[in-house]
Design brief:
The protein has about 280 residues and is of the alpha+beta class. The chain has 13 helices and 4 strands.
C-alpha cells in the first residue's frame, strides 16, 4: 500500500460530523471544487438523477433552520448544499420531445415516474453528497448531513421553487472547524452485526442485545417508564415525536408526485406483451 492509498483510507476513517463552525467563509473556488467532486460520484446509467442547490442566502438558511427541526448550526454553516432527487429534468426532455405522442402513435405505454425512480434518484443524490463530504474533509473542512430537509415538503417546494418530480433528500453543511476544535470519532457497531456473507442473517435476541444494549444503556429509573433498553430507545426517539410524524407525512406526500399516473395491472400486462412481440 503506497502513501496515497494510505492517505485516502485515513481520510475516510477519520471523518466525523461537524456541528460547530468557525466564521471563516468557504472560499468560492473550494466550494466549486467540492461540487465538482460531488458530480464525479457513481450514478445510474451516467444520468445523474439529482440536482444540487447551493444556499448562500442567510435569510433562507434561517428559514431552513426552522423547518429542519430548529437545528442551530444550519444557519451558522458558511456553506450549505441541498441534494435533490430529480427526475423532472428527464421527463421535461421527454415532454419537449413529444415522447407521449410518439408512444401513442406506436401503441406503446408511456410510463410516468414510479417509486422505483424516486429511490433511484435518491441513491444518486446520496452518492454525490458523500463525495462532497470526502472532498470537504480533504480540504480541511468538516460537514454535517441534515435529513430533516425531507420534512415540510410543501414549504421547501415553495422556498426552492421545486417542480413535482424534484424532492430534497438531504442537505449538507460544510465549513471550517472552530479554533481548538477536537473531533470526536464515535464508534460504529461491530462489523459482525452489519456484514453478512451470501445471505442475510437475522440477528437473534442475544445478538441484538449485544449490538444495541452496549450502546444504549438501559436506565431503570427513566422518564419514559420503559422496562428495557428497546422500549427506552423507541420511546426516546419516536413516540410522541411531532418532528418524526412530520417527516413521515412529508415523505408520503412527496411520493404522491411519483405515482401521478400509475400503471394499472392490465396496462402493465399489455406493456409486457408488447415487449414480447417486439413493439416495445
Amino acid at each position: 500500500m503506497d502513501s496515497t492509498q494510505k492517505a485516502i483510507l485515513e481520510l475516510m476513517d477519520q471523518r466525523t460530523t461537524l456541528r460547530s463552525f468557525s466564521e471563516r467563509p468557504v472560499e468560492p473556488e473550494l466550494e466549486e471544487l467540492i461540487i465538482k467532486m460531488a458530480l464525479r460520484a457513481p450514478t445510474a446509467s451516467n444520468m445523474m438523477y439529482y440536482s444540487v442547490i447551493t444556499i448562500h442566502d442567510k435569510e433562507l438558511q434561517r428559514a431552513l433552520q426552522k423547518t429542519c427541526n430548529n437545528q442551530p448550526y444550519i444557519s451558522q454553516a458558511p456553506c450549505m448544499l441541498v441534494f435533490c432527487a430529480d427526475y423532472q429534468r428527464l421527463y421535461d426532455f421527454y415532454e419537449y420531445g413529444n415522447v407521449p405522442e410518439k408512444c401513442r402513435e406506436l401503441e406503446r405505454i408511456y410510463l410516468y415516474p414510479s417509486e422505483k425512480n424516486m429511490l433511484l434518484c435518491t441513491e444518486d443524490a446520496v452518492l454525490a453528497a458523500e463525495n462532497a463530504v470526502l472532498a470537504a474533509q480533504a480540504l480541511g473542512m468538516g460537514s454535517c448531513f441534515i435529513g430533516h430537509i425531507m420534512d415540510h415538503c410543501e414549504i421547501h417546494r415553495q422556498l426552492f421553487n421545486l417542480p413535482p418530480l424534484v424532492f430534497p433528500v438531504l442537505a449538507l453543511l460544510i465549513g471550517y472547524p472552530p479554533d481548538n476544535y477536537k473531533p470526536v470519532r464515535r464508534p460504529r457497531f461491530e462489523q459482525t452485526y452489519i456484514v453478512h456473507e451470501n445471505t442475510y442473517h437475522r440477528l437473534t435476541k442475544e445478538e441484538l442485545d449485544g449490538m444495541y444494549g452496549t450502546r444504549f444503556h438501559f436506565v431503570p429509573e427513566n422518564r419514559y417508564k420503559a422496562n428495557n433498553a428497546a422500549q427506552q430507545l423507541y420511546l426516546s426517539k419516536y413516540a410522541s415525536s411531532e418532528c418524526y410524524a412530520e417527516g413521515v407525512r412529508s415523505v408520503k406526500k412527496a411520493f404522491e408526485n411519483w405515482r401521478g399516473e400509475p400503471v394499472m395491472e392490465e396496462e402493465y400486462s399489455q406493456y409486457k406483451e408488447a415487449r414480447k412481440d417486439g413493439r416495445r
